[in-house]
Amino acid sequence: MDISRKKPSYPLTPALRQYLRDYDREAPLPVSYADLLRFSNSFPLLDRAGKDTLWQTVFYEPSTLVELSQGLVQVYALLKTAGDLSFANDLLADRIDYCRFGNSHPFRVRILNQLNDNYDYFYVKQADASRLYGLELEHLLSPNSMNYLVDSGNTLIEEHIAGIPGDDFIRLRLNQPHLNQVRIAKEFVKFNERCFARLLGDMRAYNYVIDVTPDFEDEQYRVRAIDFDQQSYEGRRAMYVPQFFKDNAPVVDLCARLLKSSTLRQYQAEERTLMARRARAERHRLKALLDVMRRQELAPVAKVDELKTALNRYHRTQKFDACDSMGDVVRLNLWLMLKVM
Fold first, then answer.
1. Where would I find the H helices in 30-180?
2. Whose CA is closest to 106, among 122, 127, 123, 130?
3. How buried is 121 (Cβ within 10 angstroms: 0-12 exposed, 13-18 middle, 19+ buried)?
4. How far is the CA of 102 from the CAs of 3, 5, 42, 208, 317, in angstroms?
5. Burial of 251 (0-12, 13-18, 19+ CB in 10 A)
6. d(C-alpha 90, C-alpha 115), whole Å
7. Among the CATH numbers 2.60.40, 1.10.150, 1.10.1070, 3.30.450, which is that of 164-338?
8. Which keywords appear in this protein's UniProt record, sorted alphabetically (predicted)?
């Protein structure tokens, strides 16, 4: 399937900015995305096996680095502790990586606690309305809380989402003897359902992670999206269904082998029920978000029309004909799948 690699960045409208302020997502930031572009040199970052990660570690002039490090520690404090800087002297931004791959060209900042050498990450990106709608829908409708901030300009700060990258999990762990394959199959079905309900696209294996949690008898798994650039942009329905991407085929085969059709429908119903409960619990905030989203252009008209036709066919209805925007399409798709809104 062809993904729109050159998807344009959509601006944050005044209405979207007001929504972000209303729900404490906006904050003044001491470092902007543009500040991090002032690096003077870089070299490829390799993984433990010596493979290129597609990230580059960047370097700055000494005076610039001191200024940036202080500012990035403050950003970390804003993200994690609402700006409490009482521990700032213990923290250091000891590495900054840059990725030219994809749409957002993010920076990844590693924050080191100098007292115990423990470290954490966060990301600095260019703010894009599509991505922000994706983050908010994930926060409201999935079991995952999303922690991020935007400034009044064009900078987005995102918390790191921990987990095993999907492509690595499929390649290295999917067929290990100790793995509970039925639980993985169940979680992929639920992930598939969440993505389609809220129209999150491009969930190829490297755009999600597997969060593994040891339980008292076994392991629990959760599939978590980590890339939200393709929130309700593409025209083809298949783009919003992870099972149709080629690199997810081993997991799809696993589901087909281990799950009967009645069990699959059970897991789909379970996830729709959970999403519906979350939507009802956050109905005022969700309505506010969708009202803003419906008024903004988030895809070319041709893509909107193509998706309306595909969803009419899927849902056996003509209701999508009345949709004027991608936000309208998302709202109606949620209503038809969850029976709320």
1. 33-36, 62-81, 129-141, 166-172
2. 123
3. middle
4. 11, 7, 18, 14, 35
5. buried
6. 6
7. 1.10.1070
8. Coiled coil
DSSP string, 233-251: --S-GGGG-GGGSGGGHHH
Reduce the DSSP state of residue 261 to 3 states and report it: helix
Q: Which amino acid is at 94?
A: D
339 touches 326 (CB < 8 A): no
Helix, strand, coil percent content, the chain, rounded in steps of 5? 50, 20, 35
Segment 94-147, tens digit of pLDDT = 999 999 876 778 999 999 999 999 999 999 999 999 999 999 999 999 999 999
Q: Which residues contact 196 (CB under 8 A, 6 or more apart)?
A: 240, 241, 337
In this predicted model, what pLDDT tens digit does every residue of 260-301 receive, in sequence order?
999 999 999 999 999 999 999 999 999 999 999 999 999 999
Query: What is the pLDDT, as a whole number, of residue 216?
Result: 81
- Whole-model pTM: value is 0.94
